[in-house]
Amino acid sequence: MRSDTPAENVDHTAEAARLERTAGLYPEDAEALLLRAAAHLELAGDRPAATTLYDRLIATGDSLEHPHLIRARKAANLWEYDHEAEARAIIEGIRVAAPRDPLPWVIVAEALESHDELEAAQDTFTQAAYLLLPPEGEPPYSTRPLLFGRHRVRRMLGLPHDDWDALADTLNTAPVPLDELHDPKRVWSLGSSNPAELQAEISRLHAELGTYREALSRPFPVAVLHWPAPELAELVADYPTLTEEYPSYEDHLATIETSLRELSASGTPNLGIVTGTVPSYEAFAASEGTSPADPTLLPQYATTLAARGRAVPWPPERGEACWCGSGAAYGECHGAQPA
User: Fold this and answer.
1) Is the four-CA dihedral 90, 95, 100, 104 of positive or negative sign?
2) DSSP letter (8 states) at residue 62
3) Rounded CA gap, 80 and 114, in Å?
4) Which of 16, 117, 210, 316 could form a disulfide with 112 if both were Cys (CB 3.0 to 4.6 A apart)?
5) Order of strands, sheet of 312-313, starting from the edge strand that comes earlier in the sequence
6) Looking at the chain, which runs of residues are DSSP E strands?
7) Would you say the pTM of this structure is higher than 0.90?
8) How confident is the model at residue 208 (pLDDT cuts 50, 70, 90)?
9) pLDDT at 311 over 60
């Protein structure tokens, strides 16, 4: 799916079939591709077919990179079409396994929440928070949905703020404060007979929905292509016409950082970097029936790598290594460059 395609205009069944075909061409990326295909099947309303894909992935066993994520997605999907007992069993298994990835926790807690199991959802979010949040300092970005989800459920339960709720408030960058966003009374106002109250709530929901739709319409990152030094040297040696695109390795790295900063400043979310290799690029060019020397093929190659789950989020989190591969921390490497 193109990154600029509105989510409501997608033929989810056709997109799922395309992703399954792509998984056959790139078996090394089958897990990421089939997960996306299953998500499209869920959106198409074909939940049994989505479960079949989850089972297909689970059957591959130890080769899975994210087994708990797949099981969590399967549990949430099962509960939506009256397989509650099986879903609960999977959720309990995930809680016992205590994965170190925040996403399975978020999925199973939100599944409980969506079926009015608010206390169980709060317990699940809290268990994950104890396991994954550092005792002090700013938590990793990937754990923020745990804090936000826990805040939401506790607000619905009418519980007082604790330290983690306060932390969620400080991390929230949305224009709507979390207490307002998670206020149960906002839901009640939708049933008000007062036209002014109803219109005000509809306006707020429209503003929030715009953010959600933007995220939904961008299923994979807007990715910039990075060539490691040996790969870039081989690329321009084999295809000299690309020298204009890549005059030097240093220019290539600087251009990546500048481009991503400009995209970020323009408000583009979900940015990433994909790393190319010459054999992979040549295979992609052959699949497109064109020459690797064509510079217009480069952004298409980057988009395809991102769709295959190969993108690394940009910017790196605080203290993480720079994306360029230098081994230095990002803040001391390309992240230290003037904006």
Assistant:
1) positive
2) G
3) 10
4) 117
5) 222-226, 271-275, 312-313
6) 222-226, 271-275, 312-313
7) no
8) low
9) yes
CB count, 10 Å around CB of 61?
8
Q: How many CA atoms within 13 Å lie on the side-chain side of 128?
A: 30
Q: Which residues pair with 287 in a beta bridge?
A: none
Backbone angles phi, psi at 295, to 5 degrees: -65, -25
Right CATH for 7-166 from 3.40.50.2300, 1.25.40.10, 3.40.50.10610, 3.20.20.370? 1.25.40.10
At 120, list the tokens: 């169980």
Q: Give the pLDDT of residue 2.
A: 31
Retrieve residue 217's tokens.
Answer: 């319409």
What would the pLDDT profile of 111-135 be if each residue is shown by its tens digit? 998 888 999 999 999 999 999 999 8
Each domain of the chain, given as residue ranges in start order, spans: 7-166, 222-336
Structure tokens at 214: 């933007």
C-beta separation of 16 from 40 below 8 A: yes
Bridge partners of 274, per DSSP, are: 225
With bands split at pLDDT 50, 70 and 90, how would you rate the model's confidence at 6? very low
User: CA-CA distance, 91 to 85, in Å (whole number)?
Assistant: 10
| Alpha-carbon Rg for the chain in angstroms | 22
